[in-house]
Amino acid sequence: MTAMLLQKRRLSMRTQEALTCYLFLLPWAIGFLAFVIGPVIASFVLSFMDYSVVTPPRFAGLSNYTVLFGEDTRFGLSMGNTLYYVGMYVPLHLLVAIALALFLNQQVRGMPAYRTLFYIPSIVPLVAGAILWVWILQPEWGLINSLLNLLGIEGPLWLASTEWSKPALIVMALWGSGSAMIIFLAGLQGVPQHLYEAAEIDGANRWQRFVNVTLPMLSPTIFFLLVLSVIGSFQVFTTAYVMTGGGPAESTLFYMLYLYRRAFVFLNMGYAAAMAWILFLGILALTLVQFTLANRWVYYEAERR
Amino acid sequence: MAQQNLMRMPSAAGVLSRTASIRRARRYLGRVTTHAVLLAGAIVFAMPFIWMVSTSLKADRQIFHWPPVWIPDPVIWANYPDVFLYAPLHLYFINTMIIAAANVFGAVFTCSLAAYGFSRVRAPGRDAIFMVMISQMMIPAIVTLVPLYILYAQLDWINTFLPLTVPAVLGTPFYIFMLRQFFLTLPMETQEAALIDGASHLGIWWRIIMPLSTPALATVAIFSFMFAWNDFTGPLIFLNGREKFTLALGLQAFLFERRTIWGPLMAASTMMTFPIMVVFFLAQKYFVQGIALTGMKG
Q1: Which domain does B38 fall in, by range?
Q2: A255 with A79: CB under 8 angstroms?
Q3: A-chain residues within 8 Å CB-CB of B153?
Protein backbone atom coordinates (compact mmCIF):
# COMPACT_ATOMS: atom_id res chain seq x y z
CA MET A 1 0.00 0.00 0.00
CA THR A 2 2.61 2.53 1.07
CA ALA A 3 4.97 1.28 -1.63
CA MET A 4 2.30 1.85 -4.25
CA LEU A 5 1.61 5.30 -2.93
CA LEU A 6 5.28 6.12 -2.97
CA GLN A 7 5.60 4.90 -6.52
CA LYS A 8 2.61 6.91 -7.55
CA ARG A 9 4.08 9.96 -5.91
CA ARG A 10 7.41 9.47 -7.61
CA LEU A 11 5.63 9.05 -10.93
CA SER A 12 3.69 12.21 -10.45
CA MET A 13 6.90 13.95 -9.52
CA ARG A 14 8.46 12.81 -12.74
CA THR A 15 5.45 13.98 -14.74
CA GLN A 16 5.58 17.22 -12.88
CA GLU A 17 9.22 17.63 -13.75
CA ALA A 18 8.51 16.92 -17.41
CA LEU A 19 5.68 19.43 -17.38
CA THR A 20 7.99 22.03 -15.84
CA CYS A 21 10.52 21.37 -18.57
CA TYR A 22 7.95 21.77 -21.34
CA LEU A 23 6.66 24.90 -19.69
CA PHE A 24 10.16 26.39 -19.71
CA LEU A 25 10.53 25.59 -23.40
CA LEU A 26 7.07 26.88 -24.27
CA PRO A 27 7.91 30.50 -25.20
CA TRP A 28 10.62 29.36 -27.60
CA ALA A 29 8.32 26.64 -29.01
CA ILE A 30 5.56 29.16 -29.69
CA GLY A 31 7.99 31.44 -31.47
CA PHE A 32 9.43 28.52 -33.40
CA LEU A 33 6.04 27.36 -34.66
CA ALA A 34 4.61 30.79 -35.39
CA PHE A 35 7.64 32.62 -36.77
CA VAL A 36 9.82 29.86 -38.20
CA ILE A 37 8.14 26.59 -39.11
CA GLY A 38 4.89 28.20 -40.26
CA PRO A 39 6.69 30.73 -42.48
CA VAL A 40 9.07 28.09 -43.88
CA ILE A 41 6.12 26.01 -45.07
CA ALA A 42 4.28 29.11 -46.29
CA SER A 43 7.38 30.23 -48.15
CA PHE A 44 7.64 26.91 -49.95
CA VAL A 45 3.97 26.97 -50.96
CA LEU A 46 4.22 30.62 -51.92
CA SER A 47 7.08 29.89 -54.30
CA PHE A 48 4.54 28.13 -56.55
CA MET A 49 2.12 31.05 -56.44
CA ASP A 50 1.58 34.44 -57.94
CA TYR A 51 0.94 36.82 -55.09
CA SER A 52 1.17 40.59 -55.16
CA VAL A 53 -0.52 41.36 -51.81
CA VAL A 54 -3.34 43.39 -53.38
CA THR A 55 -4.90 40.46 -55.24
CA PRO A 56 -5.43 37.00 -53.70
CA PRO A 57 -2.69 34.40 -54.38
CA ARG A 58 -3.04 32.32 -57.54
CA PHE A 59 -1.44 28.96 -58.17
CA ALA A 60 1.26 29.34 -60.78
CA GLY A 61 2.87 25.93 -60.90
CA LEU A 62 6.56 26.02 -61.66
CA SER A 63 6.34 29.29 -63.57
CA ASN A 64 8.27 31.33 -60.97
CA TYR A 65 11.15 28.91 -61.28
CA THR A 66 11.05 28.62 -65.06
CA VAL A 67 10.99 32.40 -65.44
CA LEU A 68 13.90 32.73 -63.03
CA PHE A 69 16.06 30.28 -64.89
CA GLY A 70 14.76 31.34 -68.31
CA GLU A 71 13.81 34.90 -69.17
CA ASP A 72 14.96 36.80 -66.10
CA THR A 73 18.41 38.13 -67.02
CA ARG A 74 18.70 39.94 -63.68
CA PHE A 75 18.64 36.59 -61.90
CA GLY A 76 21.85 35.53 -63.63
CA LEU A 77 23.34 38.99 -63.31
CA SER A 78 22.68 39.26 -59.58
CA MET A 79 23.92 35.71 -59.03
CA GLY A 80 27.08 36.52 -60.99
CA ASN A 81 27.68 39.66 -58.92
CA THR A 82 27.16 37.67 -55.74
CA LEU A 83 29.55 34.88 -56.86
CA TYR A 84 32.17 37.51 -57.66
CA TYR A 85 31.74 38.98 -54.20
CA VAL A 86 31.85 35.61 -52.42
CA GLY A 87 34.79 34.41 -54.50
CA MET A 88 36.86 37.48 -53.73
CA TYR A 89 35.76 38.22 -50.20
CA VAL A 90 35.88 34.79 -48.55
CA PRO A 91 39.52 33.88 -49.33
CA LEU A 92 40.75 37.41 -48.66
CA HIS A 93 38.80 37.58 -45.43
CA LEU A 94 40.32 34.32 -44.16
CA LEU A 95 43.81 35.39 -45.25
CA VAL A 96 43.58 38.77 -43.57
CA ALA A 97 42.16 37.27 -40.38
CA ILE A 98 44.85 34.55 -40.18
CA ALA A 99 47.64 37.03 -40.91
CA LEU A 100 46.36 39.40 -38.22
CA ALA A 101 45.97 36.59 -35.72
CA LEU A 102 49.53 35.34 -36.38
CA PHE A 103 50.94 38.80 -35.86
CA LEU A 104 48.85 39.40 -32.78
CA ASN A 105 49.75 36.06 -31.25
CA GLN A 106 53.32 37.14 -30.49
CA GLN A 107 54.63 38.15 -27.13
CA VAL A 108 55.40 41.83 -27.48
CA ARG A 109 54.60 44.76 -25.31
CA GLY A 110 51.30 46.55 -25.91
CA MET A 111 49.61 43.54 -27.50
CA PRO A 112 46.18 44.13 -25.91
CA ALA A 113 46.16 47.65 -27.37
CA TYR A 114 47.02 46.31 -30.83
CA ARG A 115 44.32 43.65 -30.60
CA THR A 116 41.76 46.26 -29.62
CA LEU A 117 42.77 48.49 -32.53
CA PHE A 118 42.33 45.71 -35.06
CA TYR A 119 39.10 44.53 -33.51
CA ILE A 120 37.31 47.88 -33.21
CA PRO A 121 36.28 48.23 -36.89
CA SER A 122 34.26 45.04 -36.63
CA ILE A 123 32.02 46.48 -33.92
CA VAL A 124 31.26 49.69 -35.79
CA PRO A 125 27.56 49.40 -36.71
CA LEU A 126 27.26 48.31 -40.33
CA VAL A 127 25.21 51.30 -41.45
CA ALA A 128 27.52 53.79 -39.70
CA GLY A 129 30.48 52.00 -41.31
CA ALA A 130 28.79 52.06 -44.71
CA ILE A 131 28.18 55.81 -44.50
CA LEU A 132 31.78 56.33 -43.40
CA TRP A 133 33.07 54.34 -46.36
CA VAL A 134 30.92 56.24 -48.83
CA TRP A 135 32.81 59.31 -47.61
CA ILE A 136 36.21 57.59 -47.63
CA LEU A 137 35.62 56.33 -51.18
CA GLN A 138 34.25 59.65 -52.42
CA PRO A 139 36.20 60.19 -55.66
CA GLU A 140 37.08 63.87 -55.26
CA TRP A 141 37.54 64.53 -51.55
CA GLY A 142 37.51 61.04 -50.08
CA LEU A 143 40.43 59.87 -47.99
CA ILE A 144 41.63 57.09 -50.27
CA ASN A 145 41.80 59.12 -53.44
CA SER A 146 43.33 62.06 -51.56
CA LEU A 147 46.10 59.79 -50.29
CA LEU A 148 46.55 58.26 -53.74
CA ASN A 149 46.78 61.77 -55.09
CA LEU A 150 49.63 62.52 -52.72
CA LEU A 151 51.47 59.62 -54.35
CA GLY A 152 50.69 61.04 -57.75
CA ILE A 153 48.12 58.38 -58.60
CA GLU A 154 44.70 59.32 -59.83
CA GLY A 155 42.26 57.08 -57.96
CA PRO A 156 39.27 55.39 -59.60
CA LEU A 157 35.67 56.49 -59.13
CA TRP A 158 35.12 53.58 -56.72
CA LEU A 159 31.40 53.32 -55.97
CA ALA A 160 30.54 55.25 -59.11
CA SER A 161 32.49 52.94 -61.39
CA THR A 162 31.15 49.63 -62.65
CA GLU A 163 34.64 48.19 -62.50
CA TRP A 164 35.55 49.26 -58.95
CA SER A 165 32.22 49.18 -57.12
CA LYS A 166 32.44 45.53 -56.10
CA PRO A 167 36.12 45.68 -55.04
CA ALA A 168 35.27 48.78 -53.00
CA LEU A 169 32.56 46.92 -51.09
CA ILE A 170 34.94 44.00 -50.57
CA VAL A 171 37.65 46.27 -49.17
CA MET A 172 35.14 47.76 -46.79
CA ALA A 173 34.01 44.32 -45.64
CA LEU A 174 37.63 43.25 -45.09
CA TRP A 175 38.04 46.18 -42.73
CA GLY A 176 35.78 44.26 -40.34
CA SER A 177 37.88 41.09 -40.20
CA GLY A 178 38.46 41.59 -36.48
CA SER A 179 35.98 39.08 -35.12
CA ALA A 180 37.33 36.30 -37.34
CA MET A 181 40.78 37.32 -36.13
CA ILE A 182 39.68 36.80 -32.52
CA ILE A 183 38.39 33.32 -33.37
CA PHE A 184 41.72 32.49 -35.04
CA LEU A 185 43.58 33.85 -32.02
CA ALA A 186 41.60 31.51 -29.78
CA GLY A 187 42.49 28.70 -32.20
CA LEU A 188 46.17 29.60 -32.17
CA GLN A 189 46.27 29.65 -28.40
CA GLY A 190 44.85 26.16 -28.43
CA VAL A 191 47.84 24.78 -30.35
CA PRO A 192 49.94 22.81 -27.84
CA GLN A 193 53.35 24.36 -27.37
CA HIS A 194 55.13 20.97 -27.37
CA LEU A 195 54.32 20.51 -31.06
CA TYR A 196 56.36 23.60 -31.90
CA GLU A 197 59.18 22.48 -29.64
CA ALA A 198 59.24 19.06 -31.25
CA ALA A 199 59.27 20.63 -34.72
CA GLU A 200 62.09 22.94 -33.72
CA ILE A 201 64.16 20.03 -32.50
CA ASP A 202 63.53 18.31 -35.81
CA GLY A 203 65.10 21.37 -37.43
CA ALA A 204 61.94 22.86 -38.90
CA ASN A 205 62.24 26.55 -39.78
CA ARG A 206 59.52 29.14 -39.23
CA TRP A 207 57.73 28.47 -42.50
CA GLN A 208 57.87 24.70 -42.06
CA ARG A 209 56.48 25.04 -38.54
CA PHE A 210 53.66 27.17 -39.89
CA VAL A 211 52.79 24.72 -42.68
CA ASN A 212 53.19 21.53 -40.68
CA VAL A 213 52.01 22.54 -37.23
CA THR A 214 50.00 25.77 -37.24
CA LEU A 215 47.94 25.19 -40.38
CA PRO A 216 46.81 21.63 -39.57
CA MET A 217 46.01 22.56 -35.99
CA LEU A 218 44.12 25.61 -37.19
CA SER A 219 42.24 23.78 -39.96
CA PRO A 220 39.05 23.16 -37.91
CA THR A 221 38.85 26.91 -37.22
CA ILE A 222 39.53 27.71 -40.87
CA PHE A 223 36.81 25.28 -41.89
CA PHE A 224 34.33 26.72 -39.41
CA LEU A 225 34.96 30.28 -40.57
CA LEU A 226 34.96 29.24 -44.22
CA VAL A 227 31.50 27.73 -43.88
CA LEU A 228 30.19 30.71 -41.92
CA SER A 229 31.61 33.36 -44.22
CA VAL A 230 30.37 31.62 -47.38
CA ILE A 231 26.86 31.50 -45.90
CA GLY A 232 27.09 35.10 -44.75
CA SER A 233 28.59 36.62 -47.87
CA PHE A 234 26.05 35.01 -50.20
CA GLN A 235 23.51 37.12 -48.35
CA VAL A 236 25.39 40.41 -48.69
CA PHE A 237 22.78 43.14 -48.64
CA THR A 238 23.10 46.05 -46.24
CA THR A 239 26.32 47.61 -47.56
CA ALA A 240 25.11 47.46 -51.15
CA TYR A 241 21.68 48.81 -50.23
CA VAL A 242 23.13 51.74 -48.28
CA MET A 243 26.20 52.54 -50.37
CA THR A 244 25.27 51.93 -53.99
CA GLY A 245 21.62 50.91 -54.13
CA GLY A 246 22.72 48.21 -56.58
CA GLY A 247 24.41 50.60 -59.01
CA PRO A 248 26.15 51.81 -61.01
CA ALA A 249 24.60 50.01 -63.97
CA GLU A 250 23.54 47.17 -61.61
CA SER A 251 27.16 46.26 -60.97
CA THR A 252 26.39 45.77 -57.27
CA LEU A 253 22.95 44.29 -57.71
CA PHE A 254 23.52 41.31 -55.44
CA TYR A 255 21.11 38.43 -55.13
CA MET A 256 19.57 39.56 -51.86
CA LEU A 257 19.15 43.08 -53.15
CA TYR A 258 17.33 41.80 -56.21
CA LEU A 259 15.20 39.54 -54.00
CA TYR A 260 14.35 42.50 -51.79
CA ARG A 261 13.30 44.55 -54.82
CA ARG A 262 11.16 41.76 -56.19
CA ALA A 263 9.40 41.29 -52.85
CA PHE A 264 9.07 44.77 -51.43
CA VAL A 265 9.30 47.12 -54.41
CA PHE A 266 7.48 45.12 -57.08
CA LEU A 267 5.48 43.07 -54.55
CA ASN A 268 6.15 39.81 -56.40
CA MET A 269 5.93 37.80 -53.19
CA GLY A 270 5.74 34.35 -54.81
CA TYR A 271 8.63 35.14 -57.11
CA ALA A 272 10.75 36.37 -54.19
CA ALA A 273 9.91 33.24 -52.19
CA ALA A 274 11.13 31.12 -55.12
CA MET A 275 14.33 33.17 -55.21
CA ALA A 276 14.82 32.62 -51.49
CA TRP A 277 14.46 28.85 -51.89
CA ILE A 278 16.93 28.75 -54.77
CA LEU A 279 19.49 30.65 -52.69
CA PHE A 280 18.84 28.54 -49.63
CA LEU A 281 19.21 25.25 -51.52
CA GLY A 282 22.30 26.58 -53.29
CA ILE A 283 23.98 27.55 -50.03
CA LEU A 284 22.92 24.27 -48.45
CA ALA A 285 24.41 22.26 -51.32
CA LEU A 286 27.64 24.25 -51.16
CA THR A 287 27.86 23.73 -47.40
CA LEU A 288 27.33 19.99 -47.78
CA VAL A 289 30.07 19.88 -50.43
CA GLN A 290 32.37 21.69 -48.03
CA PHE A 291 31.61 19.18 -45.29
CA THR A 292 32.34 16.28 -47.66
CA LEU A 293 35.62 17.82 -48.76
CA ALA A 294 36.53 18.66 -45.18
CA ASN A 295 37.74 15.11 -44.47
CA ARG A 296 40.57 15.70 -46.90
CA TRP A 297 42.05 18.75 -45.28
CA VAL A 298 40.59 19.40 -41.85
CA TYR A 299 42.63 17.84 -39.07
CA TYR A 300 40.81 16.88 -35.90
CA GLU A 301 43.31 16.00 -33.22
CA ALA A 302 40.82 14.08 -31.12
CA GLU A 303 40.25 11.55 -33.92
CA ARG A 304 43.87 10.55 -34.37
CA ARG A 305 45.07 10.55 -30.84
CA MET B 1 65.27 17.21 -24.79
CA ALA B 2 67.29 19.25 -22.34
CA GLN B 3 70.02 16.66 -22.52
CA GLN B 4 70.26 16.90 -26.28
CA ASN B 5 70.61 20.66 -26.08
CA LEU B 6 73.31 20.31 -23.48
CA MET B 7 75.24 17.92 -25.68
CA ARG B 8 75.10 20.24 -28.63
CA MET B 9 76.22 23.24 -26.66
CA PRO B 10 79.76 24.37 -27.55
CA SER B 11 82.17 24.24 -24.65
CA ALA B 12 84.07 27.50 -25.11
CA ALA B 13 82.53 30.30 -23.11
CA GLY B 14 83.51 32.96 -25.69
CA VAL B 15 81.58 31.28 -28.49
CA LEU B 16 78.66 30.96 -26.15
CA SER B 17 78.49 34.63 -25.30
CA ARG B 18 78.97 35.67 -28.92
CA THR B 19 76.12 33.49 -30.17
CA ALA B 20 74.04 34.74 -27.27
CA SER B 21 74.62 38.36 -28.20
CA ILE B 22 73.89 37.65 -31.86
CA ARG B 23 70.72 35.94 -30.79
CA ARG B 24 69.79 38.87 -28.59
CA ALA B 25 70.39 41.30 -31.44
CA ARG B 26 68.34 39.19 -33.75
CA ARG B 27 65.51 38.97 -31.25
CA TYR B 28 65.63 42.74 -30.80
CA LEU B 29 65.50 43.25 -34.55
CA GLY B 30 62.61 40.81 -34.78
CA ARG B 31 60.74 42.69 -32.10
CA VAL B 32 61.26 46.00 -33.85
CA THR B 33 60.00 44.57 -37.16
CA THR B 34 56.97 43.09 -35.39
CA HIS B 35 56.14 46.45 -33.86
CA ALA B 36 56.66 48.21 -37.18
CA VAL B 37 54.34 45.82 -39.02
CA LEU B 38 51.76 45.90 -36.24
CA LEU B 39 51.84 49.66 -36.08
CA ALA B 40 51.48 50.00 -39.84
CA GLY B 41 48.55 47.59 -39.81
CA ALA B 42 46.96 49.30 -36.84
CA ILE B 43 47.20 52.66 -38.59
CA VAL B 44 45.50 51.27 -41.69
CA PHE B 45 42.73 49.72 -39.58
CA ALA B 46 42.25 52.74 -37.35
CA MET B 47 42.45 55.32 -40.14
CA PRO B 48 38.82 55.17 -41.33
CA PHE B 49 37.62 55.46 -37.76
CA ILE B 50 39.86 58.43 -37.00
CA TRP B 51 38.74 59.98 -40.28
CA MET B 52 35.11 59.68 -39.22
CA VAL B 53 35.65 61.47 -35.90
CA SER B 54 37.99 64.01 -37.48
CA THR B 55 35.54 64.90 -40.28
CA SER B 56 32.72 65.25 -37.75
CA LEU B 57 34.72 67.99 -35.99
CA LYS B 58 35.66 69.97 -39.10
CA ALA B 59 34.20 72.95 -40.87
CA ASP B 60 33.42 72.48 -44.57
CA ARG B 61 36.52 74.44 -45.50
CA GLN B 62 38.66 71.71 -43.97
CA ILE B 63 36.46 68.81 -45.01
CA PHE B 64 36.95 69.70 -48.66
CA HIS B 65 40.63 70.29 -48.51
CA TRP B 66 43.63 68.80 -50.25
CA PRO B 67 45.92 67.47 -48.88
CA PRO B 68 43.69 65.86 -46.22
CA VAL B 69 43.67 67.54 -42.80
CA TRP B 70 43.85 65.07 -39.91
CA ILE B 71 43.47 67.30 -36.91
CA PRO B 72 40.60 69.79 -37.20
CA ASP B 73 41.69 73.36 -36.62
CA PRO B 74 39.64 74.82 -35.12
CA VAL B 75 37.57 71.99 -33.64
CA ILE B 76 33.97 72.59 -34.69
CA TRP B 77 31.20 70.98 -32.62
CA ALA B 78 28.37 72.44 -34.70
CA ASN B 79 28.04 69.34 -36.87
CA TYR B 80 26.62 67.43 -33.89
CA PRO B 81 23.64 69.70 -33.14
CA ASP B 82 23.25 70.21 -36.91
CA VAL B 83 22.41 66.53 -37.35
CA PHE B 84 19.13 67.12 -35.55
CA LEU B 85 18.10 69.69 -38.16
CA TYR B 86 18.07 66.94 -40.78
CA ALA B 87 17.23 63.81 -38.84
CA PRO B 88 15.46 63.39 -35.46
CA LEU B 89 18.25 61.28 -34.04
CA HIS B 90 16.87 61.45 -30.50
CA LEU B 91 13.66 59.81 -31.72
CA TYR B 92 15.60 57.11 -33.59
CA PHE B 93 17.66 56.61 -30.47
CA ILE B 94 14.60 56.05 -28.27
CA ASN B 95 13.06 53.67 -30.84
CA THR B 96 16.28 51.67 -31.07
CA MET B 97 16.55 51.51 -27.28
CA ILE B 98 12.98 50.17 -26.94
CA ILE B 99 13.68 47.43 -29.47
CA ALA B 100 17.08 46.66 -27.95
CA ALA B 101 15.60 46.47 -24.45
CA ALA B 102 13.07 43.88 -25.59
CA ASN B 103 15.82 41.88 -27.30
CA VAL B 104 18.03 41.93 -24.21
CA PHE B 105 15.08 40.98 -22.00
CA GLY B 106 14.34 37.99 -24.25
CA ALA B 107 17.96 36.88 -24.28
CA VAL B 108 18.43 37.15 -20.52
CA PHE B 109 15.08 35.85 -19.25
CA THR B 110 13.24 33.74 -21.83
CA CYS B 111 16.36 32.24 -23.35
CA SER B 112 17.85 31.37 -19.97
CA LEU B 113 14.56 29.81 -18.91
CA ALA B 114 14.58 27.64 -22.02
CA ALA B 115 18.27 26.90 -21.53
CA TYR B 116 17.51 25.82 -17.97
CA GLY B 117 14.80 23.52 -19.31
CA PHE B 118 17.18 22.05 -21.88
CA SER B 119 20.00 21.46 -19.41
CA ARG B 120 18.64 20.91 -15.90
CA VAL B 121 15.11 19.54 -16.03
CA ARG B 122 14.44 16.01 -17.29
CA ALA B 123 11.60 15.29 -19.68
CA PRO B 124 10.99 12.68 -22.36
CA GLY B 125 11.86 13.99 -25.84
CA ARG B 126 13.79 16.92 -24.45
CA ASP B 127 16.98 16.18 -26.34
CA ALA B 128 15.09 15.57 -29.58
CA ILE B 129 13.50 19.00 -29.15
CA PHE B 130 16.95 20.40 -28.57
CA MET B 131 18.11 18.97 -31.90
CA VAL B 132 15.12 20.64 -33.56
CA MET B 133 16.23 23.93 -32.06
CA ILE B 134 19.77 23.40 -33.31
CA SER B 135 18.49 22.83 -36.84
CA GLN B 136 16.42 25.99 -36.51
CA MET B 137 19.73 27.87 -36.42
CA MET B 138 20.53 26.54 -39.91
CA ILE B 139 17.43 28.06 -41.51
CA PRO B 140 18.48 31.36 -43.08
CA ALA B 141 16.29 34.38 -42.44
CA ILE B 142 15.59 34.96 -46.15
CA VAL B 143 13.48 31.82 -46.42
CA THR B 144 10.99 33.11 -43.88
CA LEU B 145 11.21 36.79 -44.79
CA VAL B 146 8.39 37.03 -47.31
CA PRO B 147 5.79 34.97 -45.39
CA LEU B 148 6.70 36.81 -42.19
CA TYR B 149 6.00 40.10 -43.90
CA ILE B 150 2.62 38.80 -45.05
CA LEU B 151 1.87 37.43 -41.58
CA TYR B 152 2.77 40.71 -39.89
CA ALA B 153 0.75 42.63 -42.45
CA GLN B 154 -2.30 40.49 -41.64
CA LEU B 155 -1.75 40.96 -37.91
CA ASP B 156 -1.46 44.70 -38.55
CA TRP B 157 2.04 44.68 -37.11
CA ILE B 158 3.73 46.52 -39.97
CA ASN B 159 5.18 49.83 -38.82
CA THR B 160 5.07 48.75 -35.19
CA PHE B 161 7.96 47.41 -33.11
CA LEU B 162 6.22 44.05 -32.66
CA PRO B 163 7.97 42.20 -35.54
CA LEU B 164 11.30 43.31 -34.11
CA THR B 165 10.49 42.48 -30.50
CA VAL B 166 7.92 39.67 -30.13
CA PRO B 167 10.01 36.89 -31.77
CA ALA B 168 13.07 38.04 -29.81
CA VAL B 169 11.17 38.06 -26.53
CA LEU B 170 10.01 34.49 -27.18
CA GLY B 171 13.62 33.34 -27.53
CA THR B 172 16.54 33.10 -29.94
CA PRO B 173 18.08 29.64 -30.50
CA PHE B 174 21.65 30.88 -30.53
CA TYR B 175 21.41 32.48 -27.09
CA ILE B 176 19.53 29.47 -25.71
CA PHE B 177 22.33 27.27 -27.03
CA MET B 178 25.06 29.43 -25.52
CA LEU B 179 23.35 29.57 -22.12
CA ARG B 180 22.61 25.84 -22.14
CA GLN B 181 26.28 25.08 -22.71
CA PHE B 182 27.10 27.28 -19.75
CA PHE B 183 24.41 25.85 -17.46
CA LEU B 184 25.72 22.33 -18.16
CA THR B 185 29.01 23.29 -16.53
CA LEU B 186 27.34 24.27 -13.23
CA PRO B 187 27.26 21.59 -10.48
CA MET B 188 24.02 19.63 -9.99
CA GLU B 189 24.35 19.03 -6.22
CA THR B 190 23.00 22.37 -5.00
CA GLN B 191 20.03 21.99 -7.28
CA GLU B 192 19.22 18.47 -6.02
CA ALA B 193 19.52 19.58 -2.41
CA ALA B 194 17.24 22.52 -3.06
CA LEU B 195 14.69 20.26 -4.79
CA ILE B 196 14.64 17.93 -1.78
CA ASP B 197 14.08 20.97 0.42
CA GLY B 198 10.98 21.63 -1.63
CA ALA B 199 12.24 24.40 -3.90
CA SER B 200 10.62 24.73 -7.31
CA HIS B 201 12.57 24.72 -10.57
CA LEU B 202 11.53 28.29 -11.13
CA GLY B 203 13.01 29.21 -7.76
CA ILE B 204 16.24 27.34 -8.48
CA TRP B 205 16.56 29.00 -11.86
CA TRP B 206 16.06 32.42 -10.36
CA ARG B 207 17.96 32.08 -7.07
CA ILE B 208 20.77 29.67 -7.89
CA ILE B 209 21.42 29.43 -11.61
CA MET B 210 20.92 33.04 -12.65
CA PRO B 211 23.29 34.53 -10.04
CA LEU B 212 25.93 31.95 -10.94
CA SER B 213 25.66 32.78 -14.63
CA THR B 214 26.33 36.49 -14.80
CA PRO B 215 29.27 36.15 -17.23
CA ALA B 216 27.23 34.08 -19.69
CA LEU B 217 24.20 36.32 -19.25
CA ALA B 218 26.33 39.41 -19.83
CA THR B 219 27.62 37.87 -23.05
CA VAL B 220 24.16 37.13 -24.47
CA ALA B 221 22.89 40.50 -23.27
CA ILE B 222 25.69 42.28 -25.14
CA PHE B 223 25.21 40.20 -28.26
CA SER B 224 21.48 40.81 -28.38
CA PHE B 225 21.94 44.50 -27.69
CA MET B 226 24.48 44.78 -30.50
CA PHE B 227 22.22 42.87 -32.85
CA ALA B 228 19.26 45.14 -32.17
CA TRP B 229 21.40 48.24 -32.36
CA ASN B 230 22.97 47.31 -35.70
CA ASP B 231 20.10 45.48 -37.41
CA PHE B 232 19.17 47.11 -40.68
CA THR B 233 17.21 44.54 -42.70
CA GLY B 234 14.50 43.99 -40.08
CA PRO B 235 13.64 47.67 -39.56
CA LEU B 236 13.92 48.31 -43.31
CA ILE B 237 11.26 45.74 -44.11
CA PHE B 238 8.92 46.09 -41.15
CA LEU B 239 9.03 49.83 -40.42
CA ASN B 240 8.02 52.49 -42.90
CA GLY B 241 7.04 55.60 -40.97
CA ARG B 242 9.81 57.97 -40.06
CA GLU B 243 8.51 58.28 -36.48
CA LYS B 244 9.22 54.55 -36.05
CA PHE B 245 12.71 54.49 -37.59
CA THR B 246 15.67 53.03 -35.74
CA LEU B 247 19.13 54.60 -35.82
CA ALA B 248 20.35 52.28 -38.58
CA LEU B 249 17.34 53.05 -40.76
CA GLY B 250 17.32 56.75 -39.93
CA LEU B 251 20.99 57.14 -40.75
CA GLN B 252 20.50 55.40 -44.07
CA ALA B 253 17.65 57.78 -44.91
CA PHE B 254 19.83 60.70 -43.88
CA LEU B 255 22.61 59.59 -46.24
CA PHE B 256 20.13 58.98 -49.02
CA GLU B 257 18.68 62.48 -48.77
CA ARG B 258 21.83 64.51 -48.10
CA ARG B 259 24.78 62.79 -49.62
CA THR B 260 27.04 65.84 -49.53
CA ILE B 261 26.94 67.25 -46.00
CA TRP B 262 29.74 65.07 -44.69
CA GLY B 263 30.25 66.93 -41.41
CA PRO B 264 26.78 66.15 -39.99
CA LEU B 265 26.79 62.71 -41.65
CA MET B 266 30.01 61.78 -39.89
CA ALA B 267 28.71 63.29 -36.64
CA ALA B 268 25.62 61.07 -36.91
CA SER B 269 27.74 57.99 -37.64
CA THR B 270 29.98 58.79 -34.69
CA MET B 271 26.95 59.16 -32.43
CA MET B 272 25.62 55.79 -33.56
CA THR B 273 28.99 54.14 -32.97
CA PHE B 274 29.72 55.76 -29.61
CA PRO B 275 27.38 53.70 -27.36
CA ILE B 276 28.73 50.47 -28.88
CA MET B 277 32.26 51.62 -28.10
CA VAL B 278 31.29 52.37 -24.51
CA VAL B 279 29.73 48.92 -24.13
CA PHE B 280 32.82 47.40 -25.69
CA PHE B 281 35.29 49.09 -23.37
CA LEU B 282 33.18 48.37 -20.29
CA ALA B 283 32.66 44.72 -21.13
CA GLN B 284 35.60 43.78 -23.32
CA LYS B 285 36.13 40.38 -21.77
CA TYR B 286 32.54 39.30 -22.43
CA PHE B 287 32.94 40.23 -26.09
CA VAL B 288 36.01 38.10 -26.47
CA GLN B 289 34.45 35.26 -24.47
CA GLY B 290 31.34 35.35 -26.62
CA ILE B 291 33.24 35.35 -29.87
CA ALA B 292 35.56 32.59 -28.71
CA LEU B 293 32.49 30.61 -27.68
CA THR B 294 30.99 31.12 -31.14
CA GLY B 295 34.19 29.76 -32.58
CA MET B 296 34.26 26.80 -30.27
CA LYS B 297 31.19 25.36 -31.95
CA GLY B 298 33.34 24.21 -34.82
Answers
A1: 12-76
A2: yes
A3: 53
CB contact under 8 A, B4 and A143: no
Per-residue pLDDT at B6 exceeds 50? no
In a domain, B7, yes or no: no
pLDDT value of position B197: 86
Is A183 in contact with B49 (Cβ distance < 8 A)? no
CB atoms A20 and B117 under 8 Å: yes
**Is B191 a domain residue?**
yes
Taking CB atoms and an 8 Å limit, are A283 and B288 in contact across chains?
Answer: no
**Radius of gyration of the CA atoms of chain A, in A:** 26
- Please check whether residues B47 and B194 belong to one and the same domain: no
Query: A183 and B295: CB-CB below 8 Å?
Result: yes
Query: Based on the number of CB atoms within 10 Å of its own CB, is A13 exposed (0-12), middle (13-18) or buried (19 or more)?
Result: exposed
CB < 8 Å from A in window 267-296 of B:
268-270, 272-273, 276-277, 280, 284, 287-288, 291-292, 294-296
Co-location of B93 and B136 in the same domain: yes
Q: What is the mean pLDDT of residues A19-46?
A: 94
User: Between residues 101 and 160 of chain B, which touch chain A (CB distance below 8 Å)?
Assistant: 110-111, 113-114, 116-118, 121-124, 126, 129, 132-133, 136, 139-140, 142-151, 153
Note the pLDDT tens digit of each residue in B40-72. Answer: 888 889 999 999 999 999 988 888 888 888 888
> In chain B, how many domains are there?
2
Answer whether residue B1 is part of any domain: no
Looking at the structure, tell me whether residues B72 and B87 fall in a common domain: no
Q: Which residues of B96-112 are buried (b: 16+ CB within 10 A; e: fewer)?
A: bbebbebbbbbbbbbbb
Cα–Cα separations (whole angstroms), residue A147 to A136, B36, B47, B68, B198:
10, 20, 12, 8, 71
Specify whether B175 is located in the same domain as B53: no
Domains assigned to chain A = 71-304 (1.10.3720.10)
ipTM for the whole complex: 0.87
